[in-house]
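Our collaborator T.R. sent over the components below with a one-line note: 'Predict the complex.' Nothing else. No constraints on interfaces, no templates requested, no preferences about which chain binds where. So this is a plain run: every listed entity goes in together, and whatever single assembly comes back becomes the starting point for the next discussion.
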Amino acid sequence: MTRRAASWLLVMVVAVSALVVAAVDEGEPKTNADRAYSLAKDFACPVCQGQSIAESDVPIARTIRRNIRIWVDEGQSHAFIRDELVSIYGEDIDYSPSTEGISSLVWILPIVGFVAAAAGLTIVFRRWKAEAVSEATAADEAIVTAARRERHDD
Amino acid sequence: MIGEERQAVWIVLPVAVALGLLVLLLATGDPASERNNTFQLQGEVAPLIEGPTIDGGWFDIDDQRGRWVIVNFFSTTCVPCIVEHPELVAFSDAHDVLGDATVVSVAFDDRAENVVEFFQDNGGSWPVLTENTGEIAVQYGVTGVPESYIVAPSGVIAGRFIGGLTAVALDDAIATLTGVDA
Amino acid sequence: MSNATFGAGAVAFGMACAVVGAIIVVLGLAGRRPRWFAEATTLVFGMLAASLAAFVVMERALITRDFTVAFVAEHGSSRTPALFNFATLWSALEGSILLWTLILCGYVVAVVVKFRRQGDDPMVGWAVLTLFIVSGFFFLLMLSVAAPFNTFDPQPLADGTPFDGPGPNPLLQNHILMAFHPPVLYLGYVGFTVPFAFAISALVTGRVGEGWLLATRRWTVMAWGLLSLGIVLGAWWSYETLGWGGYWAWDPVENASFLPWLTGTAFLHSVMVQERRGMLRVWNLSLVIATFSLTILGTFITRSGVLQSVHAFVESGIGPAILIFFGLIVVVSLGLIAWRGDELRSPGRIDSPISREGAFLANNVLFAAFAFVVLLGTVFPLIVEVVDGRTISVGNPYFDQMTMPIGFALLFLMAVAPVLPWRKASGTLLSERLIWPAWLGAAAMVVSLLIGARGWAPTLAFGLGGFAGGAALRQVVLATRRQGWRGLVGRTNGGMIVHVGVVLIAVAFAASNAYVRQGEFTLLPGETAEIAGHTLTYEGSTFREYSNRTEWRAAVSVDGGQAYEPGIAVYPFASQTIGIPSVRSTLFDDVALSVLSFPETEEDDVILRATIQPLVMWLWIGGLVMAFGTLLAVVPGKRRQPTAPTSARLPEPEYDPEPVGVDG
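Returned assembly:
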C-alpha cells in the first residue's frame, strides 16, 4: 500500500471513529431543564409574533415553560407534551407541521423534488456520456489551425 | 426527446404555473394580524381547578356543578384587570343573592401578598387562588390577562372573554347560553 | 417652500425622468433618436438628483423634527437621540422605499457611467431600459401607496404642549446596528438589479454568450458581498437586541432575505462554468432572474403583513403593488426564456460528473433545493390556510431538519470543488490534493471530542468544516507561495477566503445550536446562580431616566468579573416596554443575560434568564471574513482585461530599470 493510501485509510478511520464516539457517547447526561428547554424551542408562543416558547419573555410563555418542565419531571414523552399543548392551544402552537393530512406535503415535496432532481441529473449525465464525441473531424481541425494562426498574428 | 426545439417552453410552463399559484396564494392570504387565537376548549369539560383560597378555604370547581362559574384569570399589575374588578364585584353580589352563579379568581404570574392586599382594598368575597396557578392557566389555554371563562352548570366550558368584561356582558352571555345549554 | 412640497416635487420629477428616459431609450433602440444614450444619461442623473433631493429633504425634516411632514409626525420625535433620528428614515415603510430608490438611482448612474463607451450597443440600451422601468416602479410607489411627503397639521396636545411624534418603534432605537443593517442590506438587494437588467437585455437581444456576464461580474460579486454582510449584520442586531440569544429563527422576513442570497450564491459559482466552457447558460439566466425576483418577493413579504413576523414592517397597502410587479417580472422573464430558450442551450457537454463543471452543476441543484425548501416552509402555512382552513406553524424543527443534509452536502462540495480540475478528474489527483484538508477535518472532530462535545450532527459539521476550510486554505497557501501577495487577491483566492468565512459561520452555527443552555433564576441581591460552568451574581439594580425612556438595570457579574447590566426600558410615548439584553462575548462562548421581571423595591428578587451559547462570536467574525474576502475577490487580476477572451496573451511584464546609484 502506498504511503498516501495508508494516510487516507488512517484519516478515514480517525474520522469515522470520532463520529461514532460522538454519536454513541452520551457525554454529560441531559438534565431535565435542558430537555424542557429544547422542547420549548419547538413550540410557538401563543401570543407573540414569531417567537418560540423558549425565547419569549411574556408571562404566558414563562408559565408554559414551567409547565413543560413539570411534565418533563413527571417523565412524559415529547408526544404527550405536544398533544397536550395542541389540544389546549391549537395546532399552530407546534412548529413542526404534522405528518398527517395535507401538512405532510411540506415534508414530502422537498424529498420528492430532490429525488426527481437526482434522477434528472443521472439521466442527463448518462445521455451526455452516450453522446460524447471522441474524435475531432478534419473540418474541426481546420478551424482550430486557422484560429491559432490568426491569434498569433496579432 | 419531445420536441427538442421547443423544450424551453415545456420547462417554462410548469414553472410559470407554480409561480402563478404562488402569486395567487399571496394575493388571497389574510393579513396575519387578523388571525384569532384558536379557542379549542369550547364544549369541553372544564379543566380541574382546585386549591387553597386566600382566605384559608378550599375551592374545587366540581363542587360548583349546577351553577354558572366565571373563572377569571387576572393579575394585580394589569390595568384592564383593575378596571374590570368592580364589574366582577357587582356581578358577584347580584348572583350571590340568587345563588345561580359564582366567580372564582385565579391569580396569574403574581405574588400572593399583592393579591391579598388587592382584594382587601377593592372588595370581592369570592374564592381566589394563588397556588399552582400556572398549571391551571395552561390547562385553560390562557394567553394573557384578563381572560375569563364561563363554565356552565353542567361543567363544560361555554364561552371565553378576552379582555375586560362588564357585569351586563356576563349576564347577557349567560342568558344566551341558557337558551342553548340545558 | 416647505419640506413636504419640495420632497413631493422631487419624487414627481424623478418619476418624470424615469418615464421620459424609458421612452427615449425605446426610441433610440428603434433607431429614431441618434443621441439617445447621451439623453438617457442626463435623465439618469436627473433621477439621482431627484432621489437624493428627496432623501436630503426627508432627513432634514427628521433631524429638525418638522412635524408638518406626515412621515415625521408618525415616526419622528424630539426625544429620539440624533443618530436614530437619521436612521428613522428606514425604520418605516415610506422611508425605506425612499432609501431603496436612492440606492437604485445610484446604481443606474454607475451603469451609464461605466458603460458610456458602449452606449450605442443595444445590449446596454435594453439594460438601461429595464433599469428605467424598475426605477419608475419605485418612484410610482412613492407617488401612490408609499408616499413619504404627505402633509400633516401638527396640533398642540390637549394640555397645550406642542405636538411631538411617538418616535420609531423602541426596538429600532436602541442599537447602533439599526443604522447599518438596512442600508447595507439594500445595497445588496438593489445591486442585483444590474445583472438582472443585463440578463433581460441578453435575452431580448439574443446575445446570450459571455459578454453580459463578464461586463457585470464585479457588480454581482459586490452586490452579493453586501447582501451577505447585510444578512450577518441583521442576525447580529437581532442577537443583541432581542435578548434570548437567538440570531436566526427561520422567520419569514429572515427567509425573505436569505432566498435571494441562496440563488445569488449559486449564480456566482455557476457563471464560472459559462465563462470557461460556455455551458449552463439557461441556469445562469434563470438564477440571476430568480435572485432579482426574490428580492422583490422578499420586499413583499416584509411589508405586506401576509406572514407573521417579529421583523415585519407595520402592515400597509403596498402589498398588492409589489405583488403585481413581481408577477410582471415573472411573466416577462419566463416569456423571454420560453422564446429564446432553445437558442440558449450550449453545444458543450459536461463530460464527467467528477469535474469542476459537474461540481458546479451539483452546486446549483443543491442551492435550488435549499431555496425551494425555505420558500415552501415559509409560505406553507398560507397554503394550508387557503386549502384547508386550518392554521399551522412551520418553524425551527422543520427548517433545521430539512436544511441540515443540504448544508452537509454543500460543505462537502466546498471542500472538493476547488481542487477538482475542469473536464475530468482522476482519483490520484483528488487523493493527492485533498489529503491535508481531510486530516484537518479529522483533527477538528477529534479536538471537539476532546473538549467534551458530543452528538453526531455537530461533530460531522466540524469535520466537514475542517475539510472545506482546509481545501480553501490550501489554495491560498499555494497561491501566495507562487505569487506573493497577489496570491491573496483575485477571484479565486478571494473566493477561498470567503469560503473560510462561510466555514466559520457553519461551524459556529452548528455549535451554538447544538450546545445552547438556558436557565431562569430568581435571585436576591448578592445571590449567585450557576449554569454551564459559569457563575452569575446579582449585585443590585439601578434606575435611570433618559429623554425618551426610563431604564431599570440589574447589575450581574459573570464569573466574578465585570458586571453586565441587562434590564428593562419603558418608552411611555410608544406605550411599550422592551427588554434590554446584555451579552458577555468571548471567543469561546457567549453569556446572554436578560431580565424577566421588574423588582418592586431595592431588596426584591429579580428573575434573570441566562443563555449560554458557544462560538457565537465566530458567526460575526466569519461574516467579516466573508466581506473581506469579497473585497479581495474584486481586486483586478494581473492576467488580462475582463472582456478579453480567455485564451488571450498575458500582458508583458513591465520594464524594470536598474535603480540609479546601485553598486555592482
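Summary for T.R.: Confidence is low (pLDDT under 50) at residues 654-664 of chain C.
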